[in-house]
Amino acid sequence: MAPKHAGFRHEAQWIIWWRAALSPEPRKTREEREGKTMPELAISAEKVAFIIEKAREFDVKEAASDPDSGSNPSDDDGIDVLEDTASDPVASELTGFIGALNEDEQLDLVTLMWIGRGDGSVDEWDDLRARAAEARAEYKAPRREAVQYLLGEPMLGDLLADGLDELGIDWTDERLTADSSGPSERDEDEPTKRR
Which domain holds residue 101? Predict the structure, then answer.
């Protein structure tokens, strides 16, 4: 039989949280407590969050299973939306967005992906970023090839999210797509909303 906490466990957690919330001292981040300094990113968390969401949309695509059905699209019940085609709007949007980033932002993306993939740690940020810059210098068309490199990585969205997590950045607060808006934001767009 498991020992009972008589309800004190949850109250104690609440008291500890409330005391910390009322404390005059600002709460220290994990990095400050551990004495680490985190690198400053050239790319905003909002941009990385957008890329994460779009990359995850891209990752769920599958090869064309019905390449020449010749049927009415409504008969396919929207299945074709999940097929990876040459004219995939998600891939086009990602390609355009990443291609429009400046060099420093693209270098940060590659470095974040490498950290998320486990190729290095946050402590090695400067070395990893320098390695990314060296690799970029060898490209004939740096912007285009950086985009191809990033989009060629399976699970890019998850790797970028893991990289941000390693830096202690919560990307979920920075979501930009319509699907991530809260109910109140969606309600504001409805013309029938009561005031």
Answer: 42-64+75-170
Run means of pLDDT, 10 residues per run, the chain, 195 residues:
48 50 51 64 93 84 55 54 58 90 95 94 94 92 91 92 92 56 42 46
Q: 152 lies in a domain?
A: yes
Q: Which residue has the tokens 């109910």?
A: 183
* Residue-wise burial string across 64-79, b where 16 or more C-beta atoms lie within 10 A, e elsewhere: eeeeeeeeeeeeeeee
Task: Report if residue 80 sits inside a domain.
Answer: yes
How many angstroms separate the CA atoms of 106 and 115, rounded?
14
Look at residues 62, 137, 50 and name the one whose alpha carbon lies nearest to residue 94: 50
Residue 14 domain flag: no
| Number of domains into which the chain is organized | 1
SS3 percent helix, strand, coil of the chain, rounded to 5, is: 60, 0, 35
For residue range 143-152, what is the model confidence (pLDDT) as tens digits?
Answer: 899 999 999 8
Rounded Cα distance between 76 and 82, Å, is 11
Question: In this predicted structure, what is the pLDDT of residue 101?
Answer: 93
Query: In this structure, is residue 190 part of a structural domain?
Result: no
